Amino acid sequence: RRKCPVRCRGARLSLGQGLAMEAKPPLYPVAGAAGPEGDENSLGVPDGLGAPLDELVGAYPNYNEEEEERRYYRRRRLGVLKNVLAASAGGTLTYGVYLGLLQMQLILHYDETYREVKYGNMGLPDIDSKMLMGINVTPIAALLYTPVLIRFFGTKWMMFLAVGIYALFVSTNYWERYYTLVPSAVALGMAIVPLWASMGNYITRMAQKYYEYSHYKEDEQGPPQRPPRGSHAPYLLVFQAIFYSFFHLSFACAQLPMIYFLNYYLYDLNHTLWNVKSCGTNSHGILNGFNKTVLRTLPRSKNLIVVETVLMGVAFLAMLLVLGLCGAAYRPTEEIDLRSVGWGNIFQLPFKHVRDFRLRHLVPFFIYSGFEVLFACTGLALGYGVCSMGLERLAYLLIAYSLGASAASFLGLLGLWLPRSVPLVAGAVLHLLLTLSLFFWAPVPRVQKQNWILYVAAVLWGVGSALNKTGLSTLLGIMYEDKERQDFIFTIYHWWQAVAIFAVYLGSSLPMKAKLGVLLVTLVVAVASYLWMEQKLRRGVLPRQPRIPRPQHKVRGYRYLEEDNSDESDAEDCGQGQGACAEEEEPQGDPAGPCRRPCPYEQALGGDGLEQ
């Protein structure tokens, strides 16, 4: 051993390692390898017979492709329902917190004793007036930026951002100063139209996606095509009914701070209404002669902080609902294509849609939709309700309106069996009868015998509001089902609502008869204009719609190496007019031609593009 060279020792070591490796059993059984009789491999097949390769790498023996596909699309449909419920609950909590905080804040700031003790000579009434001006005036400019924001952030993220701005407004009430309340009110005014436009667009898109997931087998029978016109209408009716049944509950949620907190500090009607001489149709402005002191005792700052913290927590919960439970409204490639039409075109298209006669005929209904909501919260609730029943009954009157509207939202499902104009016109007729009745009725202050009439009027007005809101949103979703137009259409709708709310803010000091007269004239014009539009459509008059430009992708990333557009939204247009689409088709040929800019992969390989 001492004389054996190193090579011999290395040979002996390698020989020993080889024998040890031969002695070890294989880690994995070899398919088809022969072994001793009676031995079985891990599949339970005798080694002598051999195991077929398909049993090792083949599909699961009990796999049913149709059943798995059916389960997959059922999960997608349940996901769509989850999105609708989450968006509806988020909108309800957001608007409920906003209305509840604003109502409590205005009542507290109205009391002279509260202002003098808590804030001294800070000028709280002036701050409140400027805050209301910021909330009501700022949405007038929303038509200029809302479509750009929705296309830039996306529908879901626009909803989340707007709900966050509502939460910001709630948070500024911890420290009530000019430099906190007024800027947050201006930001809130900027977010009103984007929030509700993106909400309407989101619910419409969910109805279209639910139709796609319910009729997935139709796409497998041939080349992918657009669904027939109006095919998603039944799902849209159901989803809009769910959304507005949740949304109208926000008026009831907004009364919880008043019922469980503020009502314990209020004077009764004999004190607050002692100088009120006329109510209802004989009144002027808002609560003329109402007492300047409405609080028996001032609430402690500690209790106010607790209430505002609860409201802030609910607003934060609404943000989490939208962020965590709401899925995307579009696929990533669809959102890229929607942004790629050019920001200048996105800015101009809301104005270009004015050429469509259907929108022009619906503008009076949009304006009336804003009028009637503000009249329910100010004219009916204050001019008729508080003026005769006292401030302590305001919460219960608005809860009656809220529950009536929430329950009546499902009356919009009548559109599944009746013509689409029936629910919308029925709500308008109900409001017309109520407006005429209120025009000739003046309740007597501090008389409790007529309270039931006010509650019935509030419930019926809520029924008309629900038919109005569900009917208009469903009508727009059916007439404009192209996903390239929906955000523009809902922006126009909610912008006209904001203009109507601004007009109500300017005319708050008018007599009640003037307000009812404007409401009555607007309603009659809206119904006549809508019926004229339906008559034009029955005669076959084609609307003139602006052309949506094709997406122009300036960067050819991995997603756009193909020459074809990833979004097939223009398939129907090509079927209707071959000439127009033929002009826009790119020339067929070698994609790597000398006139094409090299893609990043070719640049990495060293291609010179034009110089090459």
From TrEMBL:
One of its GO terms (cellular component) is early phagosome. GO terms for molecular function: Toll-like receptor binding. Its main location: cytoplasm. Residues 563-573 have a biased composition (Acidic residues). It is found in: Cytoplasmic vesicle, Phagosome; Endoplasmic reticulum membrane; Endosome; Lysosome. CDD domains: MFS_unc93B1. Keywords: Adaptive immunity, Antiviral defense, Cytoplasmic vesicle, Endoplasmic reticulum, Endosome, Glycoprotein, Immunity, Innate immunity, Lysosome, Membrane, Phosphoprotein, Transmembrane, Transmembrane helix. It is a multi-pass membrane protein. One of its GO terms (biological process) is positive regulation of interleukin-12 production. The chain crosses the membrane at residues 80-101, 157-175, 181-203, 235-262, 304-330, 362-382, 394-417, 424-444, 450-467, 488-508, 514-533. Residues 562-612 are annotated as: Disordered. InterPro entries: UNC93B1. Plays an important role in innate and adaptive immunity by regulating nucleotide-sensing Toll-like receptor (TLR) signaling. Required for the transport of a subset of TLRs (including TLR3, TLR7 and TLR9) from the endoplasmic reticulum to endolysosomes where they can engage pathogen nucleotides and activate signaling cascades. May play a role in autoreactive B-cells removal. Belongs to the unc-93 family. This is Protein unc-93 homolog B1. It comes from Chinchilla lanigera. The gene is UNC93B1.
